[in-house]
Every structure is written in C-alpha cells, then in structure tokens.
Design brief:
- It comes from Acidihalobacter yilgarnensis.
- This protein is of the alpha/beta class.
- The chain has one domain: NAD(P)-binding Rossmann-like Domain (Rossmann fold), CATH 3.40.50.
- Helix content is 47%, strand content 15%.
- The chain contains eight helices and seven strands.
- The protein has a seven-stranded parallel β-sheet with strand order 3-2-1-4-5-6-7, sandwiched between helices.
- Helix 1 packs across helix 8 and helix 4 runs parallel beside helix 5.
- The two termini are 30 Å apart.
- The structure holds nicotinamide-adenine-dinucleotide.
- The site of nicotinamide-adenine-dinucleotide has 28 residues, from helix 1 and helix 6.
Length: 260
C-alpha cells in the first residue's frame, strides 16, 4: 500500500473526482477526511469507505468560509493525529458569455476555486509545517489552467490562478518539506460535466452530441473522456513520489487535449 500511515483531506470529496481520489487513497492505506459542503453526502462516502475496510470521516466544510475550513481541518487532525496530504478539489462550473456573466456568479466562482484553495492550504500548512513533518498539496486545476474556452471566463481565470499558488507554495514550502502540484484533467463525466452538456448546447445552438464530440473531446487524440480513476492514479503517483524532485508541477491528464 503506497499511502500506509498517511492522512489526507480531500475537499469536494462527496462526488466525482474528489470521491474517486478519496476512495483510491483509502485503498492505498491512507486515513481520509471527506470534506464537502454537502455534509450528508460526505458522511455517506465516509461510511462506504469504512464499510470497505478503509478509514474515513465526513467533514462539513464550505471551502469559502474561513471558520469552517479552520475547524474542519483541525477536526481531521484531531481524528487522525496529523495531515500529510491536502487535495484542494472542490469546484463548480457556471457558463455564460462575459457580457452576460453576473458579478455575483464571478465572485462565487473565484471564491470557491481560489479563496477555497488559499484557505485550505493555509489551514493545512499550519499542521504540515509543525516539526518539519512536511506534506503534499495538490490543487485540482483543469486543461483550463492552460487553455481557454468561450463561456468559461471565471473558471479559466480561477484555474490559471491555481498554477501561481502552487508555484509559490513549492518555493515557500520547500524548506518545510512541503511540495505542491496542480493536476489538470480534461473532461471527466461527473455531475459537474453532465450539467454543462445541455447548458452549452443551448448557449452555442448545437446538439448535446456535438457538445460532447466537438467541444469536449474534439481536441483529444482519441475522442475519449478522461476518467475519475485516471485522475486518482495521478494524485496517488504525485502523493507517493519519494522526493522533492517533483514539485511545483502541473500535470495534464486529458487524452492529449493539452500537451505541455
Ligand atoms: P462534482 O460536481 O462531481 O463534485 C464537486 C464537489 O464539490 C461536490 O461534492 C460539491 O458538493 C463540492 N463543493 C462545491 N462547492 C463547495 C464548497 N464551497 N465547499 C466544499 N465543497 C464544495 O465535480 P467534479 O467534476 O468532481 O469536480 C471536482 C474538481 O475537478 C473541480 O475543481 C473541477 O473544476 C475540477 N475539474 C473537473 C473536470 C471534469 O471534467 N469533471 C475537469 C477538470 C477539472
């Protein structure tokens, strides 16, 4: 088991990619805190991991709320004794042309993706820096950390911003044995993406099938969706990597949609 004795906190872990990472980490021996704004769903995921022989707890956490992030992170450390890995993954999508983009939606997007990344990082570092124990922080970026698409101004802006935070953390954290990365998935069939298909079809005046074939998979090398398991394997590889030779990196997992 690659993460035996490690503890991880995964935000947005009640669904989709976060859930997949949490389940993978638990199978690899980590104790996992399932942090999500949807507390009931977080508890259900934790219960399912525990039933499968893993170790998990559910934590109610809105990543935009400083107090909830501090308290939730502290309760994970109280339960498990330490925090080795933070996966800052919680996210939403709101699509609209810039000219019609509501300011409230823009602020909400930046708050969840960027305030959330900052607050969870700061809370985690307070534990990781103690006794130079160190740790790994992984942000869930996107191909949209590198590429732009119409209708996604706030998302693309936020996902580009995560690269900056990860690179600063790689430099600041080095002396404390903390490493930072961004994983940049292509399209993964999760509730976040399923919601976008009819929205984009409507907005762009094309069929849902065309949204999938042309917009979502058109630039991949093989027309195939990336999977939750592909992202979980990547998070596992980065989390278990034995040295700081790998830090400050953006790893794109997208069937060749974006090549670095
Ligand atoms: P999802 O909708 O399946 O899961 C997102 C989870 O985040 C949900 O459980 C939701 O309750 C939680 N969440 C939302 N707002 C929150 C908040 N304020 N505080 C705490 N939790 C909150 O979505 P997903 O596709 O698994 O996306 C996870 C991450 O991966 C996001 O950051 C997303 O931008 C990124 N991503 C997804 C794709 C994709 O194609 N699905 C591609 C690239 C990047």
């Amino acid at each position: 088991m690659k993460l035996a004795g490690k503890t991880a906190l995964v935000t947005g872990a009640a669904s989709g990619i976060g859930r997949g990472i949490a389940e993978c980490f638990a199978r690899e021996g980590a104790a996992v805190a399932i942090a999500d704004i949807n507390h009931d769903a977080a508890e259900a995921v934790a219960a399912s991991i525990n039933r499968a022989g893993g170790r998990a707890i559910g934590i109610a956490m809105d990543v935009t709320q400083e107090n909830e992030v501090e308290q939730g992170t502290n309760s994970a450390v109280e339960a498990f004794g330490a925090l080795d890995i933070l996966i800052s993954n919680a996210g939403v999508q709101i699509v609209n042309p810039i000219v019609d983009y509501a300011f409230a939606d823009w602020r909400r997007m930046l708050a969840i993706h960027l305030d959330g990344a900052f607050l969870t990082t700061r809370a985690a570092l307070r534990h990781m820096y103690r006794d130079a124990r160190g740790g790994i922080v992984i942000y869930m970026g996107s191909v949209h950390s590198h590429e732009a698409s119409p209708l996604k101004s706030a998302y693309v802006t936020a996902k580009h911003g995560l690269l900056g935070l990860a690179r600063v953390l790689a430099k600041e954290g080095a002396a404390h044995n903390v490493r930072a990365h961004v994983i940049c998935p292509g399209f993964v069939r999760t509730p976040l993406v399923d919601k976008q298909i009819p929205e984009q079809a409507r907005e762009l005046g094309i069929s849902e099938d065309e949204v999938i074939r042309k917009i979502m998979l058109g630039n991949t090398v093989d027309g195939v969706f990336t999977t939750v398991e592909d992202i979980a394997e990547t998070a596992l590889f980065l989390s278990a990597f034995p040295s700081a030779a790998l830090t400050g990196q953006s790893v794109t997992v997208s069937h060749g949609w974006h090549m670095q």
